[in-house]
Amino acid sequence: MTTPKRTNLIGLSEAELMELVQEMGEPGYRGRQIYHSIYARKILEFSRMSDLSASLQRELAGKFCLALPSLCSQRRSADGAVKMLLSLEDGQKIECVYIPEARRDTLCISSQVGCAVGCTFCATGTMGLRRNLTAAEIVGQPLFAAASGMVPRPAFNIVMMGMGEPLHNFDAVMKAVRLLSDPAGMAISHRKITVSTSGVVSGVRKLARQPVVPNLAVSLNASDDRTRSELMPLNRKWKIEALLDACREFPLDSRRRITFEYVLLGGVNDSPEDARRLARLLRGLPAKINLIAWNFNPDLGFVVPEPGRVQRFKEILQEKGFSTFLRKPRGADIYAACGQLALQR
Ligand code: SAH
Ligand code: SF4
C-alpha cells in the first residue's frame, strides 16, 4: 500500500493554519502556535513543537509535513559568498546565494525556475521559463538558510535577484513577501526586502497597490529604447518612458528610493553619452543607481567593460547628483554572481 502524500504546511499563512487546525477540531490558537514555531523559531519538526500536546504532534505528523527545498550542493567563494543549489520536490533546481556584507548580509533568492524574459546578456534568460515557484518554495529559501545553519548570521536582507522575473509570478511572490515581513513570523521588515524587475509595468503598478510594499529595483540596463529592446525583449512591449512613469507613481515613504540596476556591457551601453542620457532619464526620480560590470559568460557573446569606462560612467552619474554604486561582483569565482545562475554543469 502506498502512503498518501502528506500536505506541506510551509507557505501557509497564520490565518490558513488556524483554519486548518479548526477543521481538525482544535482551537484556532493552535494554528497560531504552529505558525510561530515555523517562522519565528524555525522549528521544522512537529515533535519539537513543545507547546503542542504529544497527541496533536502525532496527528499533525501523520497528515502533514514541513518540507523545505533540499540542499543539492554548495560552494563557498573566497570572498565569503555561499551559493546553494537547492532541489525542489519535482527535481527542478534553483539557486540561492548568501552574500556577507559589512553592515547586514544579503540573501539573493529565486522566484522562478528559469525566466521567460530572455535578456540576451543573462544566463538565466537562455533557459527559458520552466515553471513558477510556489510561495512555499520562495519563503523556503530564507527559511532553509536560517534553519540549516548554512549562514553565519540569522538576520539578513532579501533580494529577489536570483533566477526569474518576480513580477511574472506575482501572487506567489507577494504571499512570500507577506510571510517574510510578518512581525509575528520571520519579521524581516518590508524595507529589507527588494523585488527586482526587468520592467513588467503592469506588475509595478500592481505592486504599488499592495498592503505591504517591498523595495523596488528596476533593471534598466540601457539609456535608449533601441538598445534596451535588443537586450531585453520585454522593452518592445513596455518602453522606457512607460516604465519610468510607473516608477514615478510608485509609493515611496520617506528615505526610500527606487534602485536602478544597470549592467555595463562593453561597447554596448557603457559610453559617457549613455551615462548622460541615463541621468536625463532619471532626473527628478528618487533613484539610487547600482552599476554592475557584466559578469563574463562565454556563451552569450558580450564583453566585459573596460575599467576606465566603468569609472567614467560612474563619475558622470555622481557629478549629476545621483547616488551611484559600483556593485562588486561577489562570488564570481563560483559562478554565483548575478546572471550566472543558470545551471552550471
Ligand atoms: N529578473 C529580475 C531579477 C533577476 S536578474 C531582473 O531582471 O531584474 C538580477 C540582476 O542581474 C538584473 O539586474 C540583471 O540585469 C542582472 N544580470 C543578469 N545577467 C548578468 C550578468 N551576466 N552580469 C551582471 N549582471 C547581470
Ligand atoms: Fe530574466 Fe532578469 Fe535574467 Fe532578464 S535579467 S532574463 S528578466 S532573470
The CATH superfamily of the largest domain bears the name Aldolase class I
Low-confidence stretches: none
Tell me the radius of gyration: 21 Å
Give me the number of helical elements.
10
Nearest-integer average pLDDT = 93
Distance between the termini: 38 Å
Identify the CATH class of the largest domain.
Alpha Beta
**CATH fold type of the largest domain:** TIM Barrel
How would you characterize the overall build of this protein?
By secondary structure, the protein is an alpha/beta fold. Strand 13 (287-293), helix 10 and strand 14 form a beta-alpha-beta unit. The two termini are 38 Å apart. The strands form three sheets. Strands 3-4-5-6-9-10-11-12-13-14 form a ten-stranded mixed sheet, with helices on one face. A two-stranded parallel ribbon has the order 1-2. The chain has helices spanning 14-23, 29-40, 54-63, 135-148, 170-181, 201-208, 225-231, 240-248, 272-282, 307-319, and strands at residues 7-8, 64-65, 70-76, 82-87, 93-99, 105-108, 112-114, 129-132, 156-160, 193-197, 215-219, 258-264, 287-293, 323-327. Residues 115, 117-119, 122, 124-125, 164-165, 198, 219 line the site of iron/sulfur cluster.
